[in-house]
């Protein structure tokens, strides 16, 4: 039986609707939105004494239910289908004497001006506005003009809709330009199986007297989980807010039916500011054997640890889900701009929302556990915020790592889950003979991280590998004196500081394009310049080009650890210009024949990476690679002479000798840092 039109245009045909309702008979047809779902919103805007016009009433039970529940009785229903009007007149009859049904074209209504306090539309606008054709838009303008005419000032046009973007945009633009207040409510779902996966919305357009076009528009949205409306600045923001809620509903519907093949990311935003408060990843593990209690769990990532491989990378989250033993694990990262009281507060805030992401087959009333590392939400303290024209917005923050160690990190907010620089903080020591604190002084917070920088500790694995690669320097002495080293990219300064402190006769030149980073390194990471450590604020490309023209073959080692500001390229380190053949040839010119060029490469684009490696091989005959486990970083060691090639055994021996020379009595050394281990997985390309 054909119950839906062959083409959307038939939605405006009286002939189609007569045939539709004759075929359907007495069964009510609800496009979407049952009365129990709509009632909480309708109650806000329909008063018992209001006179209500229902346009395109069909044979919906909505008017009857409004009448029978006492919401309103003075209801006039109109429709272009004679068949449905006669059907509804028979159905209501003497049961509802104050309610009437009239066959009438809503584009040309017979009512006098300002006759109604409310015009109610349930799916009619959606049925009419099927496309953006000129004829359709003219028809909709006519509909809106008639609704405006029959409404009193202060009256409300209530439109129940699926809020397709073009429908919502048209309605909002028309009525807001007329000076009406526009509010969009998301209708709370009853939880029953619905005909439509998409959520239902009610547009509330409140009529005001015509105001100057310069007056600000009042546009608001009321999500289903809150009563307080949220103000938005323009139509585009309102359409985007609705679209986000539609996408979320589609996602929840998909996740409730089938396991997800890929990890699904999702931001939950703060209601007041609109900023992300939680970032969720839905991770399914079909390989985990099902049992009654392992269907679903939530994992709260401690603050500051979201950048770690286990939590910040797709493969890490897969391993976490399997290790936890749950078939679906939702990981939750906490944002630095937000405040969190404790685990109980987070659980209370998230409990209802995460249940919308539950997997298929979750037993009724199943207790869903909230997990974390160590049972707390971690410690994060933002020490400094800044912005520069080159690096954008950035923060310096102290976080607690695994165990009792604290770390200071530099984060560029355009890549908020990437640590640009990191340093371990030394535990604070009580001063001997210090006077007792005065009673009125504030007590120290036990969760407050210490502030002194541990310069002997390299936090980043790629920095450890870069330093280990210095064993490739030629000559029998593992620690030759008076080396000249060039580091391009300062960050927090931990790499050049380590080289300066442990290669005690080396002269280190650092090139940094952003003067703000020099201030950050000096102010927050314990960096300082001296006779053997100098920073040049310059573009690395220009600096190397100038040296190549003036003073060739002057550096024993050149290190590139510089990030790209262009996020559209599949290579975040270094910028593409740093690995062009013409520039690499300049690097080779200023490198001594027995020297080594060390490059930190971070490239997710396989084709681009292969192109970079090919270019490096053209310039440097000898190329080693060391992949950093669990990270995208790959450290490349390039040498001008193929005769400098060494096998794995020789590299291991040189690394041990170099470490022995660096580990001097009285000088602190991280016992976990074994140079030979850093070179075990090195490959010759």
TrEMBL record:
Methyltransferase domain location: 50-172
Basic residues: bias regions: 434-444
One GO-annotated biological process of the protein: methylation
GO molecular function: methyltransferase activity
Entries under Pfam families matching the protein: Methyltransf_31, Spermine_synth
InterPro entries on file: Lys/N-term_MeTrsfase_sf, Methyltranfer_dom, SAM-dependent_MTases_sf
Keyword line: Methyltransferase, Multifunctional enzyme, Transferase
Region span, Disordered: 429-449
A GO CC term attached to the entry: cytoplasm
SUPFAM superfamilies: S-adenosyl-L-methionine-dependent methyltransferases
Keyword Methyltransferase: yes
Keyword Methyltransferase listed: yes
Family, similarity comment: Belongs to the methyltransferase superfamily.
Protein name in UniProt: eEF1A lysine and N-terminal methyltransferase
Organism whose genome encodes this protein: Indicator maculatus (spotted honeyguide)
């Amino acid at each position: 039986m054909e119950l839906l039109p062959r083409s959307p245009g038939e939605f405006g045909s009286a002939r189609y609707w007569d045939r539709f309702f004759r075929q359907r008979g007495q069964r009510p047809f609800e496009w979407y939105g049952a009365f129990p779902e709509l009632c909480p919103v309708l109650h806000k805007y329909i008063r018992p004494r209001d006179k209500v016009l229902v346009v395109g009433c069909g044979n919906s039970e909505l008017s009857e239910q409004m009448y029978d529940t006492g919401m309103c009785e003075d209801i006039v229903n109109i429709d272009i289908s004679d068949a449905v009007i006669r059907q509804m007149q028979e159905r209501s009859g003497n049961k509802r004497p104050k309610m009437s049904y009239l066959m009438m074209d809503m584009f040309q209504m017979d009512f006098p001006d300002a006759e109604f306090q409310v015009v109610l539309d349930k799916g009619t606008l959606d049925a009419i506005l099927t496309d953006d054709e000129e004829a359709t838009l003219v028809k909709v303008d006519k509909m809106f003009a008639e609704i405006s005419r029959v409404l009193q000032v202060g009256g409300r046009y209530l439109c129940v809709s699926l809020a397709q973007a073009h429908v919502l945009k048209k309605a909002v633009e028309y009525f807001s330009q007329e000076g009406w207040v526009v509010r969009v409510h998301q209708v709370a779902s009853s939880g029953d199986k619905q005909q439509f996966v998409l959520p239902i919305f009610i547009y509330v357009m409140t009529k005001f007297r015509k105001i100057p076009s310069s007056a600000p528009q009042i546009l608001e949205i009321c999500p289903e989980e809150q009563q307080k409306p949220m103000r938005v600045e323009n139509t585009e923001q309102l359409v985007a807010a609705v679209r986000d809620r539609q996408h979320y509903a589609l996602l929840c519907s998909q996740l409730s039916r089938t396991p997800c093949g890929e990890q699904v990311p999702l931001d939950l935003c703060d209601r007041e500011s609109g900023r992300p408060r939680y970032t969720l990843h839905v991770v399914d593990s079909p390989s985990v054997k099902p049992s009654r209690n392992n269907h679903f769990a939530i994992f709260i990532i401690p603050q500051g640890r979201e950048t770690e491989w286990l939590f910040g990378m797709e493969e890490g989250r897969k391993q976490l889900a399997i290790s936890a033993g749950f078939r679906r694990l939702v990981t939750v990262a906490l944002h630095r701009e937000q405040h969190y009281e404790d685990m109980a507060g987070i659980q209370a805030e998230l409990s209802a929302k995460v249940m919308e992401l539950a997997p298929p087959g979750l037993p009724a009333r199943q207790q869903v556990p909230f997990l974390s590392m160590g049972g707390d939400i971690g410690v994060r303290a933002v020490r400094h915020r800044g912005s520069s024209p080159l690096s954008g917005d950035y923060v310096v923050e102290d976080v607690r790592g695994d165990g009792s160690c604290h770390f200071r990190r530099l984060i560029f907010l355009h890549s908020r889950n990437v640590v640009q620089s990191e340093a371990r903080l030394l535990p604070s020591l009580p001063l001997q003979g210090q006077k007792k604190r005065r009673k009125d002084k504030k007590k120290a917070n036990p969760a407050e991280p210490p502030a002194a920088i541990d310069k002997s500790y390299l936090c980043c694995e790629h920095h450890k590998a870069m330093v280990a690669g210095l064993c490739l320097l030629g000559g029998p002495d593992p620690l030759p004196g008076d080396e000249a080293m060039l580091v391009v990219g300062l960050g927090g300064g931990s790499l050049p500081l380590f080289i300066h402190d442990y290669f005690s006769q080396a002269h280190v030149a650092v090139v940094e394009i952003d003067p703000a980073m020099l201030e950050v390194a000096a102010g927050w990471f314990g960096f300082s310049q001296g006779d053997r450590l100098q920073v040049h604020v310059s573009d690395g490309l220009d600096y190397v080009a100038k040296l190549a023209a003036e003073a060739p073959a002057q550096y024993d080692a050149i290190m590139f650890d510089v990030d790209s500001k262009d996020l559209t390229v599949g290579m975040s380190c270094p910028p593409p210009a740093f690995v062009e053949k013409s520039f690499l040839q300049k690097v080779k010119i200023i490198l001594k024949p027995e020297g080594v060029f060390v490059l930190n490469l971070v490239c997710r684009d396989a084709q681009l990476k292969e192109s970079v490696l090919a270019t490096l091989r053209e310039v440097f005959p000898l190329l080693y690679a060391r992949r950093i486990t669990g990270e995208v970083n790959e450290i490349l060691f390039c040498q001008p002479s193929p005769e400098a090639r060494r096998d794995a055994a020789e590299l291991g021996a040189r690394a041990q000798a170099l470490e022995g020379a660096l580990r001097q009595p009285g000088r602190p050394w991280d016992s976990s840092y074994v140079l030979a281990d850093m070179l075990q997985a090195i490959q010759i390309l």
